[in-house]
Amino acid sequence: MLVIEFPPIEAVAALCNRLPPGTRVELLWLLDPTSPLKPGDLGTVQFVGSIGTVFCLWDRGFDKGILWGMGEVRKLGAE
Questions:
Q1: How far apart are CA 65 and CA 26, in angstroms?
Q2: C-alpha to C-alpha distance for 56 and 42, rounded to whole angstroms
Q3: DSSP 3-state helix, strand, coil percentages of the chain (rounded to 5)?
Q4: What is the pLDDT of residue 77?
Q5: H helices within 1-79, ranges in order?
Q6: Which residues pair with 6 in a beta bridge?
Q7: Quick one: pLDDT at residue 64?
Q8: What is this structure's pTM?
Q9: Mean pLDDT, the chain cut into blocks of 10 residues (79 residues total)
Q10: What is the pLDDT of residue 26?
Q11: Which residues lie below 8 Å from residue 75, measured CB to CB, with a gap of 6+?
Q12: How far apart are CA 2 and CA 74, in angstroms?
């Protein structure tokens, strides 16, 4: 059975600050073999949810969130 640990509220707040709506991101990895998304896909952040899910509109037409601990995105442009 897969157990997902929720992030601390401070980590979610930091993620919200780092990835505000409109931020461009690249998918680094995703633990979902059924997802059409692949590492290297680019997208635009719509919002970060209360448990750290990064919801994006992906350039290939998908609207999918990346769950905390189940994938990672990298902010594009100036850090």
A1: 13
A2: 9
A3: 15, 35, 50
A4: 87
A5: 9-18
A6: none
A7: 92
A8: 0.89
A9: 81 95 97 93 97 96 92 87
A10: 98
A11: 18, 19, 23, 24, 25
A12: 25
Please work out, in degrees rounded to the nearest 5, the angle formed at the alpha carbon of residue 10 by the alpha carbons of 68 and 17. Answer: 80
Query: Rounded CA gap, 22 and 6, in Å?
Result: 24
To the nearest 10°, report the CA torsion of 4, 50, 75, 78.
-140
Q: What 3-state class would DSSP assign to 11? A: helix
The per-residue b/e assignment along 57-71, b for 16 or more CB within 10 angstroms, e otherwise, is ebeeeeebbbbbeeb
- Could you identify the residue written with the tokens 């999918």? 64
Quote the pLDDT of residue 3. Answer: 73
> DSSP class of residue 5?
P
The one-letter amino acid code at 43 reads G
What is the DSSP code string of 35-63? Answer: -S--TT-EEEEEEE-TTS-EEEEETTS-E
